[in-house]
Amino acid sequence: MIARKIQMVDLGSQYQNIAKEIDESVLAVVRSTQYINGPAVKSFNKNLADYLKVNHVMGCANGTDALQIALMALGLKRGDEVIVPAFTYAATAEVIGLLQLSPVMIDVDPDTFNTTAELIEKAITPKTKAIVPVHLFGQSTDMEDILALAKAHNLFIIEDNAQAIGADYTFKDGTVKKTGTMGHVGCTSFFPSKNLGAYGDGGAMFCNDDEIADNLKMIANHGQKKRYYHDVIGVNSRLDSIQAAILDIKLRHLDQYSSNRAQVAKTYDEGFESVAALQTPKRQHNSTHVFHQYTLRVKNGKRNELQQYLAEKEIPSMIYYPIPLYKQDAFKEFYNSSQGLPATEILSDQVISLPIHTEMKSDVQGYIIDSVKSFFK
What is this structure's pTM? Predict the structure, then answer.
């Protein structure tokens, strides 16, 4: 038994390693009294844009707002269809329904957990106006074919990059782009447990198109370009200066955080290699993986029993996502139950995510691996 409490994400230890930088940055904002849209926000937006190699970054209040504002900025109309994977967090589809658009939920690849161009193409109708690929658990959806499909059908792409910020996608010609920068708009969340997490809520939108960027900024600011002149119905969604200052510090460490997570994942892979009932995460061949989650498939029907066994050993775990979106009461009206999404059904019954974070200690990870293996003996 490990003496210290095991956590899914150890934010306390992460903070201790950068405490001096964080404390100074927060105190500087407090002393400046520029808490909203101050220099810290402008600095972070610029530095994140430079990191992503994208023209525009606009911070906002949270990742869900980012998705909603992105859809609003593209001028979609009531009843327009937006294709979204069924194996994702509710927010991805929630904002589509909230805007009185129609979320069209499709299946995913059971090994990468991401959707594919082939699955998307089957769902395209004359009403389809946009696609929301989700870069789930930390690696990119295979975007090249999706981008070509969207171009052929004149569709918008809004990338849900809440779980994969920092991941690289390589095109067939060798071009490398960060997730979230390939579609019309990329959206991310800075929820504290994310790979680039704030100490509260936060999110961002990024794009290369100047006109779309202007729309995003306007809608996020009550629909106004000039103060008190409201051109459209907008929202109030801002990334506050304290969170921006914290994120600016953590952005400097993001690549190291990604490297640390990849090493933890590699150690898990090696530890579970001999366990026939487990399928370790498959890497997309043309994407790096930043491992927001380390998600196993338990293929012998004992996922829930494994979770209970780990809990008894004081090892936390999470199931993302136990109920497919189309089985949730909120989304039933958008799905024809006669259709089947077999991979999503399988994953909902099989997946389990283990603790993974940037400060994982070898003795803790060793205890987790040994405990999982002992369950299958």
Answer: 0.96
